[in-house]
Amino acid sequence: MKGNQFKREGGHAEGTGTFVRATQDVLGGGILENKKAKRVFPFLLFLALLAFVYITNDYLLENKVREITRLERQIRELRYEYISVKSDLMTLSKQSQLEKRLEKMGIKENKEPVKTIVIDSKNTK
Prior knowledge:
With 125 residues, this protein is mostly helical. The longest helix is centred in the middle third of the chain and has 58 residues. The termini are far apart.
């Protein structure tokens, strides 16, 4: 009959006193005086270190994910800008567009064929 417990005068079971005592030991520092706790303390420090590394790693990973998302968005915007500028350049570099722009400046297209000048190499001296 392990489950049966005697109640104290205050109405609390004996198991509750153990919890209170353990809490007082932890908060009061009495647990550090216990020999068993001294043996487990390096392991607890190791677990705390692992938890710290885990939290730090998660934080750094989240920052990297945010940065990657920002860079992908920036690449997408730059790609759109590249396509737009390339399209504008193709439109402006057409001969008809060049003629219109040069006509505004007063320069007209030459309608006559190009004349070539031939120089005799013997007569140059």
